[in-house]
């Protein structure tokens, strides 16, 4: 019966006639994805109950707002998201602005593609830029320069939910222009990114299992935990007693050797049976931490004082 329902739901177009979602929010990015972006927005119109509840924002939507509205009929939200521009029922979650909120790192575990910088805290400590370069979109996207955005709370919240991250990736457009640079650097150091600070990898399987127990993004953490367990099994010595024990659990008993046959509840049960063996082999080594200024720094703003401040951290 369930299979027949979903077959009709799709092939007979019930999903299109009976829109399910109260609100759909789309973030746009690169302008060279214009065609795909327009197609996505027009498709999303079929998913939302009221066209007025389809919210579109982001980089492309800000830079080409008029063209996007003409192509889709949806008026984009331009610039950085703030409380005043949110629907009334969504404002409580964003009382201090979107830059103070931690990102949802589980998204990275829910996809096959693996980003190079998956083991890093992402964020901003400033917004905007003092320059008005003709080729740059920042003055249009972030017209007001914000010289300081607190970092500590976001780092702590990410650590609590997803485990500590090795590096710090800052996406500031012009951090050296900040009058609060000393405050920012000192906060970075206090967050564990001083020049001599080291990082020891937390138990990612334990974290994934913990999030499965909480019911937080089952799809992502099923993929994550299953992958980690199989990686662990494949590293065990072939023919050893431990390898045989783990094999029986993941292949014969709970069928978690393939993602397609893996159920969250079976992962939890399997973990309880193999965790002692897993922890016995878990010996992470301390590694150097780095701060990555992803957008680079403005060389014109270097002074001896700023170089001294930057010498407190290892950056690239």
Set down the secondary structure blueprint.
Blueprint: H1 2-11, H2 14-17, E1 24-28, H3 34-44, E2 54-58, H4 59-63, H5 65-72, H6 106-109, E3 120-123, H7 138-141, H8 152-162, E4 167-170, H9 181-193, E5 198-199, H10 204-213, H11 218-235, H12 241-253, H13 264-280, E6 287-288, E7 291-293, H14 304-310
Strand content: 5-15%
Query: What's the N-to-C terminus distance?
Result: 57 Å
Please identify the top-level CATH class of the largest domain.
Answer: Alpha Beta
Radius of gyration: 24 Å
Helix content: 40-55%
Q: Tell the overall outline.
A: flat
Oligomeric state of this protein: single chain
The largest β sheet comes out as: 3 strands, parallel
Can you describe this structure?
The structure is a single chain. With 316 residues, this protein is mainly α. The chain has three domains: 2-79, no CATH class; 100-201 and 286-310, Transcription Regulator spoIIAA (2-Layer Sandwich); 204-280. 43% of the residues lie in helices and 8% in strands. The chain has helices at residues 2-11, 14-17, 34-44, 59-63, 65-72, 106-109, 138-141, 152-162, 181-193, 204-213, 218-235, 241-253, 264-280, 304-310; strands at residues 24-28, 54-58, 120-123, 167-170, 198-199, 287-288, 291-293. The chain has a three-stranded parallel β-sheet, with helices on one face. Strands 1-2 form a two-stranded parallel ribbon. The longest helix has 18 residues, at 218-235. The radius of gyration is 24 Å and the shape is flat.
């Amino acid at each position: 019966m369930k299979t027949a329902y979903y077959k009709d739901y799709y092939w007979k177009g019930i999903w299109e006639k009976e829109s399910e979602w109260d609100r759909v929010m789309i973030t746009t990015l690169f302008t060279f994805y214009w065609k795909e972006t327009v197609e996505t927005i027009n498709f999303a119109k079929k998913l939302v109950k009221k066209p007025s509840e389809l919210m579109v924002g982001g980089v492309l939507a800000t830079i080409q707002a008029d063209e996007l509205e003409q192509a889709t009929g949806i008026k984009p939200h331009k610039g950085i998201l703030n409380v005043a521009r949110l629907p009334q029922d969504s404002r409580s979650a964003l009382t201090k602005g979107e830059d103070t909120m931690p990102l949802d790192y589980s998204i990275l575990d829910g996809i096959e593609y693996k980003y190079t910088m998956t083991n890093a805290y992402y964020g901003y400590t400033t917004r905007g830029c003092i320059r008005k370069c003709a080729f740059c979109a920042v003055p249009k996207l972030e017209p007001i320069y914000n010289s300081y955005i607190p970092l500590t709370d976001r780092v702590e919240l990410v650590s609590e939910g997803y485990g500590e991250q090795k590096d710090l990736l800052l996406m500031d457009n012009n951090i050296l222009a900040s009058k609060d640079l000393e405050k920012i650097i000192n906060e970075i150091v206090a967050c564990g990114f001083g020049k001599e600070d080291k990082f020891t990898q937390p138990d990612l399987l334990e974290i994934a299992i913990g999030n499965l127990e909480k019911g937080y993004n089952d799809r992502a953490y099923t993929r994550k935990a299953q992958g980690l367990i199989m990686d662990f099994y494949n590293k065990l010595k072939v023919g050893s007693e431990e390898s045989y024990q783990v094999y029986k659990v993941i292949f014969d008993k709970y069928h978690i050797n393939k993602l397609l046959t893996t159920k969250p509840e079976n992962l939890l049960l399997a973990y309880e049976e193999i965790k002692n063996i897993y922890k016995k082999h878990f010996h992470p080594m301390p590694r150097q931490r780095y701060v990555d200024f992803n957008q680079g720094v403005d060389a014109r703003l270097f002074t001896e004082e700023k170089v001294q401040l930057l010498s407190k951290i290892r950056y690239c």
